[in-house]
């Protein structure tokens, strides 16, 4: 039909077609040629100047962030530590609003630095614990139940939801847990630094050791805290010849440089020219190393690595690599174990302590009932 009309020439065209042609040729005459050309050059952004400004600003930010980070590596420490007062409005003095069998205490870890700690006793002692003071809790630490020094990950405080869940799970499983906020976190004083964290953890270890009698003490690190756990264990071994009784690393990485190269937040910069120079090298300039891969090569205490296949923050292949490094370095291979939780459980980066099997797996590894 269309074709026939074309062949018919003008004869097949409607009045509407003609009116439209008339209208457009008038419009063309009205619009000066240069203006049309200018509009063509500007393209679609011409239609939305505000969007253009927004995109320019975003581009400027995108380019300046790596440069600023390189110039001021302290900025990258802020991104890594994320020591924000989150969750908001937590009264650290009253853990009972969030948790049973728990007391809040403070420890001076070096002159001028005081860290906040929650001590949760095994829930089997919950009834006794009600209304007791710190003296009772300190006594309880020597009751033969194993003691976990819990080293949380970056971001927020010991009151974060998944950390509370960890305390509940392990308390129900018969563990004491000492959960500290490192310097610069929560209600602790000071500023976050890698060496400072190690000092805080070792001070807490000494404090616990002085009260725990024959109980075993283990370091349990989660995420960023896994690097803190291996740092502390290594220092304990190298400077004092003391082995912590066990280390459990939940969602770990090999070292902070590797982790930064794989976490989602740096994804938009991986193609950026000089990604290593601007971002990864700045971690070292900011005094952040967290070399678990080096640390596990000198340790010899039992080491359990836990990760989840669906970890979207620290990819599980980093945990596997850490396990392989430890496994090939350890003389006694039976002391190193990797447990990977399948994707279908949906545990991800933060929720391994929500898994009901966890206490049994941990006790099995530690050879305790
Ligand atoms: C503490 O334990 C009691 C009794 O088992 C329970 O009702 C309460 O919800 C618990 N409190 C918290 C904050 O979990």
Strand and helix layout:
Blueprint: H1 2-7, H2 15-30, H3 33-42, H4 49-71, H5 74-81, E1 102-110, E2 113-120, H6 126-129, H7 134-140, E3 147-151, H8 161-172, E4 176-180, H9 194-209, E5 217-222, H10 224-240, E6 246-250, H11 256-262, H12 275-285, H13 292-295, E7 303-308, H14 316-329, E8 336-341, H15 358-366
Parallel strand pairs: 3-4, 3-5, 5-6, 6-7, 7-8
Antiparallel strand pairs: 1-2, 2-4
Helix pairs in contact: 4-12, 9-10, 11-12
The protein binds 2-acetamido-2-deoxy-beta-D-glucopyranose.
The site of 2-acetamido-2-deoxy-beta-D-glucopyranose (NAG) has 3 residues, from loops.
Can you describe this structure?
It is a single chain. With 369 residues, the protein is an alpha/beta fold. It has a single domain, classed as Rossmann fold. Helices cover 44% and strands 14% of the residues. Strands 1-2-4-3-5-6-7-8 form an eight-stranded mixed beta sheet, with helices on both faces. The chain is elongated and about 95 Å long. Residues 1-12 have low confidence and may be disordered. Bound molecules: 2-acetamido-2-deoxy-beta-D-glucopyranose (NAG). 2-acetamido-2-deoxy-beta-D-glucopyranose (NAG) binds next to loops.
């Amino acid at each position: 039909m269309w074709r026939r009309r074309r062949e018919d020439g003008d004869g097949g065209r409607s009045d509407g077609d003609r009116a439209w042609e008339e209208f457009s040729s008038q419009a063309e005459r009205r619009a000066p040629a240069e203006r049309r050309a200018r509009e063509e050059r500007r393209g679609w952004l011409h239609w939305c100047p505000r969007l253009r400004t927004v995109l320019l600003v975003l581009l400027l930010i995108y380019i300046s962030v790596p440069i600023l980070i390189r110039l001021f590596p302290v900025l990258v420490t802020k991104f890594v530590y994320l020591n924000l007062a989150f969750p908001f409005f937590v009264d650290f003095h009253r853990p009972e609003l969030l948790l049973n069998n728990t007391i809040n205490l403070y420890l001076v870890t070096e002159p001028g630095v005081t860290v906040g700690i929650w001590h949760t006793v095994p829930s089997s002692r919950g009834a006794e614990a009600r209304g007791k003071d710190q003296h009772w809790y300190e006594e309880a630490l020597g009751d033969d139940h194993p003691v976990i020094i819990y080293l949380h990950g970056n971001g927020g405080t010991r009151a974060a939801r998944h950390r509370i869940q960890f305390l509940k799970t392990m308390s129900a499983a018969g563990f004491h847990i000492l959960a500290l906020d490192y310097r610069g976190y929560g209600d602790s004083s000071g500023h976050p630094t890698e060496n400072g964290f190690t000092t805080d953890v070792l001070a807490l270890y000494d404090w616990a050791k002085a009260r725990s009698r024959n109980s075993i003490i283990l370091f349990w690190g989660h995420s960023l805290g896994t690097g803190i756990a291996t740092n502390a264990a290594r220092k304990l071994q190298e400077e004092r010849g003391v082995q912590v009784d066990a280390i459990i690393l939940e969602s770990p990485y090999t070292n902070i440089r590797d982790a930064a190269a794989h976490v989602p937040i740096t994804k938009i910069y991986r193609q950026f020219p000089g990604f290593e120079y601007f971002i990864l090298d700045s971690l070292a300039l900011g005094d952040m190393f967290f070399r678990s891969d080096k640390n596990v090569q000198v340790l010899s205490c039992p080491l359990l690595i836990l990760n989840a296949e669906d970890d979207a923050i620290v990819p599980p292949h980093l945990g596997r690599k850490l396990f392989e490094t430890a496994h090939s370095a350890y003389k006694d291979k039976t002391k190193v174990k990797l447990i990977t939780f399948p994707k279908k459980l949906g545990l991800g980066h933060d929720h391994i302590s929500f898994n009901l099997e966890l206490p049994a797996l941990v006790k099995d590894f530690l050879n305790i009932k």
